[in-house]
Amino acid sequence: MQIIRDVRKFVSIPGARTLLTMLFLYGIGTGILAPMNAVYLNESVGLSKVQIVVVFAVSLFCNIAITITVGWISDSLKNKKKLPVLAALLCIIGLFIYMNASDFRSALIGMTITVAPSGLIMGQLFGMARNHFARSAGDIVEMAQIWLRATYSIGFFTGLLLGANIFLIATFKGVLWGNMAGYVCLVVLLLLYKETTGGPGAKQVVKGEPFSLVMLVALLMLSCADAIRGLYLQLVVLKLFGKPEIMSYIWSAQAVFELFFMTMGGYLAARYGSKKIIFLGGCFALATYLTYTSSTSLPVFFIVQPLYSFFVSILYGVAMGYVQRMFLSRTGFGASLYVFISQTASLIGYFLPLFIQGITPKIFFIPSVLVVLSLLIIGMVLYREGRSNLRNSTVIEQL
């Protein structure tokens, strides 16, 4: 089978296992804190809903500015590895401040120093990875990127489970130290990793994608919807069920499906086209958001996770590759642009639910609307492409 051959080729490439380990451990560190960040600010620091949004928004705005600026110039650098190493060290410093925060000001400073440079990490890691596999195995570049992203997700969900149990044993302090351990591991592995430079050493069969501003807008909307869920679902779950650790278990339910769905999505996108698979993933997201708005049953929240897992797999796997292929000659910028879209979406998504009073499942009507608008855009693009292909085939037949 092709997938078995591709996997064997992937793991046999020098440096691939280091990249996998790097993303797995970094994912664990990130996942330990992610579902409890807003809860920590609310329960331990004592911030209000508006203050929590301001902390997230300011830190993300700084992240966005740094990510796209450095992403633009990173392709002129011979060695990109220095960027994520420096970013991770700054994140560690910020975490020291954040874990000792006692008020709004100290929490804002700590989280800003932690989050602002973190966009460089994912963008530059995948920029380096694309260069690495383009030189060693150009025919599996896209699937290599997807498997690396899936490995990060597996680590992330492993971190969710660890975070829930660490919280029960060592409260929020233990969770924050676990997050810091992820950054420390990342720095160590980056220093051990030998970065690939120079032109491709293997034949590349990856075709680029034409630049499409409307598709980038559609992806922005989908990412915005996911960002709203990422911040507010944990608050809604806490409001409905009263236990912070439940959110970690809900997100962990995705881990069972993540690797399979990302791999399946990658091969489906290669066969049917990225836009069609992104459209399908959006439909699953819409079904999940509508379920959140209409049910207060904890088992139902778990049942819809496979649907949402497919959407997330497409958004972070297929969509990431789609954006990068718009800029095949500028891997650093292409990877950073995708992170920029995700972070901009988060910044917008944090503010939109402020129009709904309190913490309520009605918040998820907002991502439902965003997904519907995105599906309309993608649907129109697919329709126009279909009409164009039909006209071209008709002309060829006439000739």
Features:
transmembrane helix; MFS; transport; MFS family permease; mainly alpha
Give the helix/strand layout.
Layout: H1 2-12, H2 16-33, H3 37-43, H4 49-74, H5 82-99, H6 104-115, H7 119-136, H8 141-192, H9 213-241, H10 245-252, H11 255-272, H12 274-294, H13 298-303, H14 305-325, H15 331-351, H16 365-398
Helix pairs in contact: 2-8, 4-6, 4-7, 4-15, 5-6, 5-7, 5-8, 7-8, 7-15, 8-10, 8-11, 8-14, 9-14, 9-15, 9-16, 11-12, 11-14, 12-14, 12-16, 14-15
Explain the overall architecture.
This protein has 16 helices and no strands. The mean pLDDT is 81. With 399 residues, it is an all-alpha fold. It has a single domain (9-398), classed as Growth Hormone, Chain: A (Up-down Bundle). Helix 9 (213-241) crosses helix 15 (331-351) and helix 9 (213-241) runs antiparallel to helix 16. It is 80% helix and 0% strand. It has helices at 2-12, 16-33, 37-43, 49-74, 82-99, 104-115, 119-136, 141-192, 213-241, 245-252, 255-272, 274-294, 298-303, 305-325, 331-351, 365-398. Its main location: membrane. It is a multi-pass membrane protein.
